[in-house]
Design brief:
Helix content: 55-70%
Shape: rod-shaped
Radius of gyration: 48 Å
Order of helices and strands: HEEEHEE
Number of strands: 5
Strand content: 5-15%
């Protein structure tokens, strides 16, 4: 019976050694995989650090660009307000025809451009005309400048003068 026990013990010892070797191989492979994963994790951690640095740089650049944009917008607004102020201060010169505007009566704006050398002036003249309708205002300017080859007369437009 001892032989059976000895044979059983040797068999168990052989199976144990074989199992230990198989499990050792598996443990080594798992350790290698774990080391590779740790290395990959380190690489990804470096990528994350690099991405954080680049994000910070991008945010700084974006903040700088936003500041420049705000400066440009304020400059545009100041230039627009300066232009509007200059337009408001610029005197408008009108030539008046033979009538004085009635209080409450409509005024019309008519532009006349001198086209050739026979005209008594060069460039553009603007007329403020007191008339009941646009057609009447334009008709009165046409009577004053009858030559269609020497003058180009625009259609009459309503004129509102600024209050001072």
């Amino acid at each position: 019976m001892t032989v059976v026990w000895v044979l059983g013990a040797v068999t168990s010892l052989g199976i144990g050694l074989l199992g230990e070797r198989i499990l050792g191989i598996r443990a080594r492979r798992q350790s290698e995989k774990l080391a590779a994963l740790k290395e990959r994790l380190g690489v990804y951690a470096n990528y994350a650090k690099l991405a954080a640095v680049r994000r910070a740089e991008t945010e700084e650049t974006l903040a700088g660009l936003r500041g420049e944009m705000a400066e440009a917008e304020s400059e545009i607004l100041s230039l627009q307000s300066a232009m509007a102020d200059d337009d408001a201060l610029a005197p408008m010169e009108f030539h008046c025809v033979d009538r004085v505007a009635r209080s409450g009566g409509p005024l019309w704006y008519v532009a006349v451009e001198a086209l050739d050398a026979t005209a008594p002036w060069t460039g553009m003249r603007t007329y403020a005309v007191a008339a009941d309708s646009a057609e009447e205002a334009r008709k009165r300017i046409v009577e004053r400048h009858p030559s269609p080859t020497a003058f180009a007369i625009s259609p009459a437009a309503p004129l509102s003068l600024p209050e001072r």
